[in-house]
Amino acid sequence: MTEPGKEKIAFDVETSRILQILSSEIYDSPKAFLRENVQNAYDAILMRCTAQDLPVEERRIEITVKPDRLTVRDDGIGMTEDVLKNNFWKAGSSGKKSELAQRSGVIGTFGIGAMANFGVCTALRVETRHIESELTLVSSAKRDDLKIAQDCIDLERIAEDREPGTIVMADLDPANPIDESAACEYLSQYVRFLPVPVIVNGRLISQEGFEDTLAGKAKGFEQISSCVVSRGEYAGTLQVSVNGQNRVLARLTDIELNGTAIKGETFFVQDGGTTHGFRNLFGLAPVPVSGHYGFGGFVNLDILHPTAGREALSRESIQHVANLLAMVEAEVSQVIADTPVADANQQFQQYILSHGLTPLAKGVKISVRPADDMIALGSVATYEPDKPKHYYTGQDATILKRFASDQANLFHVSQANPRRKLQLRYLSQIVKLEQVPERTIVERISATQLTIEEAMFLVRLRSILLDDYLMPDVDAAFATISHGVSFHVEKTDRALQISIARGIPAVSMVLECYTAARDVFDGFMKDFVREHIYPHIRDYVPSSTKQGRDALYKRLKENKELFRIEESDYGAIESLLADYLAGKAEFSDVIRTSRSRAAVQRQHVSRAQVGSVEDEFPDIIQANDSAPPPNELEAAPPIMREDVESDMKVLTVSAEHQKLNNFKMFLAISDRMVKREGEFLRWPHTTKLIWGAHRVIYIFADTTGSISLYYDIELKSPLETDQTGGAMFPTTTIVTKNRIFIPVPGALEPAFQITDGDKEFYVRFDTIP
Questions:
Q1: Which of 165, 193, 668, 721 sits 20 to 30 Å CA-CA off 638?
Q2: pLDDT, tens digit (0-9, with 9 covering 90-100), for 318-340
Q3: Cα 251 from Cα 328, distance rounded (Å)
Q4: For the chain, what is the radius of gyration of the CA atoms?
Q5: Cα gap 45→66, rounded to integer Å
Q6: Neighbour order of strands in the sheet with 685-692
Q7: Residue 269 to residues 219, 246, 331, 739, Cα–Cα distance (Å)
Q8: What gap in Å lies between CA 109 and CA 100, rounded to an integer?
Q9: 92 burial level (CB within 10 Å; 0-12, 13-18, 19+)
Q10: In terms of pLDDT, which residue wins out, 174 or 334?
Q11: If phi over 0 gives left and psi between -120 and 50 gives alpha, with beta otherwise, what is residue 259?
């Protein structure tokens, strides 16, 4: 039985096991042995070159990789006996905190030394000679022989004629093999930019030009600014560049910290991925910093320091980079605010939104109607100053049409962020613009207060809506409308109430026509209805409803019966047309099937039947182009000139006109189609074309899309274009007393041009319910 009392217990450790644990905690890869010793070699070279004023490029680091041994050789400053004993072989003490080391810009300062090497090797041998020594020091140790506080490391002093430098040789632990390929791949990320040659088994893996690499990253960028910047403790010279995709590149040089120059620079590219940290061009670790621009690139600064394990940067180093990045982003935002990049760069918009820098959004654009332009927010206040201005945040087409007119501008806020939030803040805080009101004030003018011209205007308006649009229940009047609104449409139980602002330019032009040129008044009125009224009443036109569609189809069917076109005449073209447009059928299938349709009709066009729109319908060309017809691809009414008779079959236009949607040629459909299907084309419809080889097929559809009319033209000569094509076009049908003209796109004009003689082609047509 042990007697009561006190005694001491000896403190002891299993040295080899502690070394393995220590090294595995500090270095997470066996290859880190190479990085540690190559970094030490580079530091030694830097110190020798500083001490002896030698060019770094003439020094050398050689690495030999064998299955069982690694060797790192340098011709650097070498180690004195004191450094070898107290720094290399003693963990926790660094020999790189001297004044020479600091001036040289060495990388490592932690003093882990040889100890960590034993995580991957079983024996270590070091041969070194200092630049001021005549002796070569050879020391070695085996992992299994190491004991704490015991003399277990061999040291030999050899007098020989040998160049300064150090050789580290390690016998590898079989559990941690390293081959040449893996060694090169791993080391390259750290030594690629070193000016000193780093050679692995005869293969150079360093001396990649840092400036050349940056120049490659900057390819396609154009510098737009260079200025001195400062923020808190930091200052430097910032160069800002942009490329064709509106990405930003920022390079910061001549950096100072509290007035002291910092060696190195930062190089950031927008969406550039990871930011890599370097010190004196030696790779350290990725820098975990981020900002609004997604900047990534290279940071090579002598204020960066690795952690003990070299796998990360110190907290202080990361904070330095984060502060520099914040300074760069702030200045970049100031620079590009005055450039077109501001409108295209979402990261810039997000940055100024997040930092409350709304005035910097002056270059961000916003849509303005009715001009349908995009203007900078900074120009909103001065844009057409004599007109009322409002902004609208929604998508309601009725509101867009109501508040955007010749009398008032409507700024349409984007639906996508961050642009939307910026636009809203700028319009409300900077321009102090009002949003569209919830209610428009309409004060209708009584008939007793109208002029004769205005009264005739309303009478003709109602008759056109009745005759051409089948709308009997319409109450049209002039009115005083608030907020610069030109047209206000409201459906009541009794009628569709249409209010027109008195004195708007479009009305004034028509009234003047009634007074000065009454013979073209009717045409001008029909154009007014088509261009200005129809967009507001589209949803109320009977053809837009099922009831109206059924009525139209009934009338078309009656026309077919009159001319004895039987249902058996229908082929498969209706389904094939749908399949072709959906990419499910070939164009040749459509053409082949169409041959089985109703009897082919020949169409002749002579040179004498080619005229011009200017001669046949001068009032169309003379009409004011300030309010063009909507270029939307949805159903639109035709241009009505039923009081004009024309003998022409092809019409051309000398110049493009907005009222004709910039078409320069129009083709008359066959007389038979006018008689049988002309009623269809007097209603609002869409226009679609497909073409290829010898064929051009027009497909017209009513407002609901439920009824289609096709017009198939077979040419004797093939089209000049080799490509089969198809597209929607803005409806620009012209209806006259005896003819109906349809537009010819520019690519198809050569097929219908007649220089002499005449042209003959075949046509087929039918409706598709």
A1: 721
A2: 999 999 999 999 999 999 999 99
A3: 9
A4: 42
A5: 24
A6: 601-606, 758-768, 708-715, 695-702, 685-692, 725-729
A7: 11, 11, 14, 63
A8: 13
A9: exposed
A10: 334
A11: left
C-alpha 453/C-alpha 719 separation (Å) is 50
Place of tokens 């930092």: 355
SS3 for 516-547 is HCHHHHHHHHHHHHHHHHHHHHHHHCHHHCHH
What span, in angstroms and rounded, lies between the C-alpha atoms of 753 and 354? 60
Q: Region of 654 please: left (phi>0), alpha (psi -120 to 50) or beta.
A: alpha
Burial per residue of 386-399, b for 16 or more beta-carbon CB atoms within 10 angstroms, e otherwise: eebbbbbeeeeeeb
Paired tokens of 517: 């040129």
3-state SS, residue 763: strand
Mean pLDDT for the stretch of residues 231-256? 96
- Enter the pTM of the model: 0.63
pLDDT at 46 over 70: yes
User: Which contiguous run of DSSP H or E holds residue 613?
Assistant: helix 613-616
Which one, of 149, 94, 146, lies nearest residue 124 by Cα?
146
> What pLDDT band is residue 93 in, cutting at 50, 70 and 90?
low
| Type of residue numbered 18 | I
pLDDT at 164 over 50: yes
Helix (H, G, I), strand (E, B) or coil at 687: strand
pLDDT in tens, 382-417: 999 988 899 999 888 878 888 888 788 999 999 999
**Which of 41-45, 98-102, 233-237 is the least confident region?**
98-102
Tell me which architecture the domain covering 16-204 has in CATH: 2-Layer Sandwich (3.30)
Q: Euclidean distance between the first and final Cα of the chain, in Å?
A: 112
- Alpha carbons within 13 angstroms on the beta-carbon side of residue 767 total 26
pLDDT of the residue at 382? 95
Are 636 and 718 in contact, with CB atoms under 8 Å apart? no
Give the whole-angstrom CA distance, residue 376 versus residue 617.
Answer: 40
The confidence score (pLDDT) of residue 597 equals 43
Per residue, what are the HEC states of 300-323?
Answer: EECCCCECCCCCCECHHHHHHHHH
- For residue 345, the one-letter residue type is N
Strands of 333-433 (E only): list them.
365-369, 373-376, 389-392, 409-412
For 464-509, the pLDDT digits (tens) are 887 778 787 889 999 998 878 888 998 888 889 999 999 888 899 8
- The token pair at 639 is 């241009």
Distance CA 389, CA 369 (A): 10
Q: Is the pLDDT of residue 599 over 50?
A: no
E strand segments, 398-473: 409-412, 434-435, 442-444
| Rounded (5°) CA angle 126-129-132 | 155
**Cβ-count burial 618-632 (b if 16+ within 10 Å, e if not):** ebbbebbeebebbee
| Residues written for the chain | 769
**Which tokens is 445 given?**
């003018």
* Contact yes or no for 468/525 (Cβ under 8 A): no
Report the C-alpha gap between 123 and 173 in whole angstroms. 9
Tokens found for residue 341: 């990049």
Q: Are strands 276-279 and 260-261 parallel, antiparallel or unpaired?
A: unpaired
Q: What stretch(es) of the chain map to CATH 3.30.565.10?
A: 16-204
CB-based burial, 418-450: b 16+ in 10 Å, e otherwise: bbbbbbbbbbeebbeeeebeeebebebeeeeeb
Q: What are phi and psi of 199, to 5 degrees?
A: -120, 125
Of 20-34, 42-56, 167-181, 552-566, the poorest mean pLDDT is in 552-566
For tokens 């004196």, the residue is 280
| Nearest C-alpha neighbor of 363 from the set 187, 242, 450 | 242
